[in-house]
Structures are given as structure tokens and as C-alpha cells.
Design brief:
By secondary structure, this protein is α+β, with helices and mostly antiparallel strands. The chain folds into two domains: 7-112 and 262-276, Rossmann fold, CATH 3.40.50.10330; 119-254, Probable inorganic polyphosphate/atp-NAD kinase, domain 2 (Tumour Suppressor Smad4), CATH 2.60.200. Helices cover 17% and strands 40% of the residues. The protein has five helices and 16 strands. The protein has helices spanning 19-32, 64-74, 100-108, 181-184, 267-276, and strands spanning 7-12, 36-41, 55-62, 81-85, 113-126, 129-136, 139-143, 151-157, 160-167, 169-173, 197-202, 212-214, 220-225, 230-234, 237-242, 247-261. It is elongated, with a radius of gyration of 20 Å.
């Protein structure tokens, strides 16, 4: 059952009361199986996470937000992620707290498959200066933040002008992100294996109000126009305050997120219905 020299890294969300006790219980069980284990909160810097570089598997305890954080940590190292749902929706997670032993046993025994999900890379430029770069599994959003006004955004695709948006924001999403904020804003649902980029405006005002599905491999430029400024968020976390003239360049990341799955390969549509269709 051992994963050899690799470590099982357990990341837990400290804001979920059940997460840390479950992490400790899981670690004790893994050690009984002869497995090397490390535990960390998921809200620390990746450089402070013990065992990250040696991780053969990352177990995320929390909801989908916890999985997004785990994905950002895991991406440069290629470690697969197993999500245990302690949140409300759990669209990306693989198992519930009641069945983690059975599922984890299957994964450790190699009785699983790896699902790869496309990620985005966003680079923020201010003139000739690169301000920051980040990777996202769900989405990159340029929006108004807490300010009560629309933002004006000049958007290009592969260097050619697409449109000027006046809106609360613009979502640039992966297929994975199409079932998150983009869906709430009226975007379509894309199968997770697609590598297309999805553009969805948020509350557009007298500007293009339809989502756009872009082809694989394109590069999207979003430049802040006007004097209001904007905010750049990556998978729901604020990364930068934007000034007039700032440009966010979004393209496919060289990294992918790998999920360890024991469900059937056609699980997505059943999960979609179970999570999104209200039950009577």
C-alpha cells in the first residue's frame, strides 16, 4: 500500500472545525500503513509547507476553495490531489468524510486514475514592469472590487481587439471554472477536459453582454481604461489593485492540476446534476 519514498501531504482548512482533527486522524492511519506523512494548514506560503516538494499525493480537507489553494501549491510539483469534502458544494472533491479510508486505500494501492485539468497563467504588467504572475485553476477576474462603479476594460485576443467592456468585471475562466463564478454570471458549462478559455462579463452595461468561448492556445489581454481603477483576483483571492493602463495577460498555464479519481471516468455529468439541480 505504500507510495514508496513519496510523502502524503495533508492540507487542511483551519476555518473548518472538523478539518484539523480529521487531518490528525488521517495522519495516524497513514503512519500505521507505513506511509510517510506531513500535515499543514493550507493558508501558509508554499515555501513553509513541509513535504511539498516530496509529496507523492496531496490530500485536501475542506471545500472547493481549499482544493483551489491546494492546486496552486501542487502545480509546480505535479503531485496529484485527493479532495475530501468538508464544504458545502464539493464539486471538485472525490470523497466525503465518512468514506475517506476506503477511497484513500484505493489511491494508495494504485486503483485510481489521474484527471488533468487546464490552468491559467496571468501576468500583470504596469508599463514595462511585470508586477506579478499567478496561476489559477478556476478563473482570473478583473473587476471593480468593493467599489460601487463599473470598470472599463479594453480586451484583446492574440493582440487583436475584441471589445470594450463596461461592467462590474470580466471573468476569464477555464472549463473547470465554468461551473463556478462564471456559471453564476450566466456563462455556459464546459466539460472539464476542454482547454478552451471562457470570457464572461459580470453585469455589463451598454456593452457586449454575451459569454465568448475562445479556442485553445489563445492569449487574452485585459487593459484597465478610465480613472476608476480595478482589482485583479485569482481563484477568488485578491492579487493586486490595478491602475489605469495596467494590463493583465491571461493564457494557458504550463502547469496542470491532477486529481486522483476512483469514480468512473464519466462522473462529471452525474456530479453536475447532483450538485446543481435543486432537489424537491
Amino acid at each position: 500500500m505504500s507510495m514508496g519514498q513519496g510523502t502524503v501531504l495533508i492540507l487542511f482548512n483551519r476555518n473548518v472545525p472538523a478539518a484539523q482533527p480529521l487531518a490528525e486522524e488521517m495522519a495516524a492511519w497513514l503512519q500505521q500503513q507505513g506511509q510517510s506523512v506531513a500535515i499543514s494548514r493550507n493558508d501558509v506560503d508554499a515555501a513553509e509547507v513541509p513535504g511539498l516538494e516530496q509529496a507523492a499525493l496531496i490530500v485536501s480537507l475542506g471545500g472547493d476553495g481549499s482544493l483551489l489553494r491546494a492546486a496552486q501549491m501542487a502545480a509546480p510539483h505535479g503531485a496529484p490531489i485527493l479532495g475530501v469534502n468538508l464544504g458545502r458544494v464539493g464539486f471538485l472533491t472525490e470523497t466525503e468524510p465518512q468514506t475517506w479510508r476506503e477511497v484513500l486505500s484505493q489511491v494508495l494501492a494504485g486503483e485510481h486514475w489521474l484527471e488533468e485539468r487546464m490552468m491559467l497563467c496571468v501576468t500583470l504588467n504596469r508599463g514595462a514592469e511585470e508586477v506579478c504572475q499567478a496561476h489559477a485553476l478556476n478563473d482570473v477576474v478583473v473587476g471593480r472590487g468593493a467599489r460601487a462603479h463599473v470598470v472599463r476594460l479594453q480586451v484583446s485576443v492574440d493582440g487583436g481587439r475584441l471589445a470594450t467592456y463596461a461592467a462590474d468585471g470580466l471573468i476569464v475562466a477555464t472549463a473547470t471554472g465554468s461551473t463556478a463564478y462564471a456559471l453564476a454570471a450566466g456563462g455556459p458549462i464546459l466539460p472539464p477536459q476542454l482547454r478552451n478559455i471562457l470570457l464572461v462579463p459580470v453585469a455589463p452595461h451598454l456593452s457586449m453582454d454575451r459569454p465568448v468561448v475562445l479556442s485553445e492556445g489563445v492569449k487574452v489581454g485585459i487593459q484597465v481604461d478610465g480613472d476608476e481603477g480595478a482589482v485583479l483576483t485569482v481563484d477568488g483571492a485578491v492579487r493586486a489593485e490595478l491602475e489605469t493602463g495596467d494590463e493583465a495577460i491571461v493564457a494557458a498555464s504550463p502547469y496542470v492540476t491532477r486529481f486522483a479519481r476512483v469514480k468512473e471516468t464519466n462522473y462529471f455529468y452525474r456530479t453536475l446534476v447532483a450538485r446543481l439541480v435543486p432537489r424537491n
